[in-house]
Design a protein that fits this description.
This protein has 8 helices and 2 strands; from the N terminus they run H-H-H-H-H-H-H-E-E-H. The chain is an all-alpha fold and about 240 residues long. It is rod-shaped, with a radius of gyration of 60 Å. About 5% of the residues have low confidence.
Amino acid sequence: MDDNYRETMVKSLIITYWNRKNVSKSVGLYDCLKQTHNKFKLKFKDKPAFNRFYKERINFIAQLPSVNVHLKNKAKSEQNDFRLNSTSDKVNDFWEEIERIDKENKVRKEYRSSIDQHLREEKKYLSTVHLKELQEDDAINEVYDAEEENVSTGYKSDEDDDLDMAENINNCSETNRENSDDNKDFGDSVIPVYADTFAERLECQPTLGRTRRWILPSGTDVSEVLEEYVKTVPGCQKCLK
């Protein structure tokens, strides 16, 4: 609050206090001081202004011809005893208490300001740390999402493997049935000379202890034909082994 404003308030309250028609025994500097403080919280720095304005007002009333006689006499009495009244014990105690309150308020204000400053710095630090943690979490999540996307793109589930295996087995079973039908129609005939120059090995699921079959593109099982042909060769013409 501006000092000029405080002085204006103190002056106006002193004028209001002496703007009276009746004068009681309690009217005086100390009573004016208490009422001014009740309406406008005085500070210790207001002491010089209060004394100056109070002295000016009682001098003005003491010289005013149209004022009430009792009021004029009271103003003259206050004028004569001003030095004594302004330094009395109760007035000094009043200003000492005001000074003590001012010091406590100052310490409290400085402490509060220090706490506020500390809290602002702590919030600023925590905000910086939290922001950094959020940025690090975002970076980790981006890397994790990218890895998940790569794995999902090149990943083949167990169900897909099972479906592929089942399809392969079905294809092999169908091929085996077709070859069996062709072998029944072939009978005891020998291998034709005009057969294609290559033969396809059909290896569905290799199993230990089983002979691999040799199937021609036409579907002829070469091993069966050879077995039938060997039966027609005389025993003396067969190899010993």
